[in-house]
Amino acid sequence: QAKYLAQIILVGAQVVGRAFMRALRQEFAGLVSPASQAAADARGRAERPQSAAASRIIGISLQEAQQILNVSSLNPEEIQKNYDHLFKVNDKSVGGSFYLQSKVVRAKERLDEELRIQARGDKEKGPKAET
């Protein structure tokens, strides 16, 4: 009976070991579930090409920039008001963080770029609508 018990323990350890190794291989291979891959693709398609390019250049997404500056819409006055406040609060001379101040500046640059892209798009759509 001790022989059978040892065999059960050995087989169980092999099963667990194989499962663990398979999980490690998948992790190192960078495999992702089809659902998470589909979600990432949808996020990529949701952004217009120019907006996606701006995200890559500035290094911050539109949504992240809106979260940093605490704005829900692309309202230039609200963006400027929140930017001024957050920039002043995070000034190093008043005990703020240069890192956070830099994030605020990058967020403002990203939102300004998005506003320029939208203005350019509106300008291009204008003449086409009249013809």
UniProtKB/TrEMBL annotation:
Gene3D superfamilies given in the database record: DnaJ domain (1.10.287.110)
GO annotations of cellular component type: PAM complex, Tim23 associated import motor
Pfam families for the chain: Pam16 (PF03656)
Keyword set, alphabetical order: Membrane, Mitochondrion, Mitochondrion inner membrane, Protein transport, Translocation, Transport
Species of provenance: Peucedramus taeniatus
Source species, domain of life: Eukaryota
Annotated family: Belongs to the TIM16/PAM16 family.
BP term (GO), one: protein import into mitochondrial matrix
Protein name (database record): TI16B translocase
Cellular compartment(s): Mitochondrion inner membrane
UniProt membrane topology term: Peripheral membrane protein
